[in-house]
Amino acid sequence: MFDSMVTFTTLINGYCKAGMVDDGVELFCEMGPRGIVANAITYITLIRGFGKVGNINGALDIFQEMISSGVIPDTITIRNMLTSLWSKEELKRAVAMLEDLQMSMLCKSYVFFNIKKNVYMLLCVASD
């Protein structure tokens, strides 16, 4: 019936907007067996969906799967992940994520280092 990445991503987006992230994940899991490879937009859609329902662990799991599948997150995705962590007061996890990204050399831009500086500043303020 539907065998394209665009169709799957569109359906996943609909589920996520409706707060039905688990159904979106179920569709996502059907992509691989059909030979359909997720792109950055597919992953970002799920990350935002998990953020919308307040499931930071689900968002982090999808983020890690994104990286391990070879899809490099852009600065917007990284910023969305960090914002989710900050809003849940998970600053140490935000720092750990940044350090992992830096160690894997996925992020070497000015924007990345600016984000990293802001995380460290927030961590210092939170510890006061």
UniProtKB/TrEMBL annotation:
Gene name linked to the record: BnaA09g11150D
Coiled coil: none
Sequence similarity: Belongs to the PPR family. P subfamily.
Alphabetized PROSITE patterns for the sequence: PPR
Organism field: Brassica napus
InterPro entries assigned to the protein according to its UniProt record, in alphabetical order: PPR_rpt, TPR-like_helical_dom_sf
Protein name stated in the entry: BnaA09g11150D protein
Alphabetically ordered keywords of this record: Repeat
PPR repeats: 4-38, 39-73
Origin organism lineage: Eukaryota, Viridiplantae, Streptophyta, Embryophyta, Tracheophyta
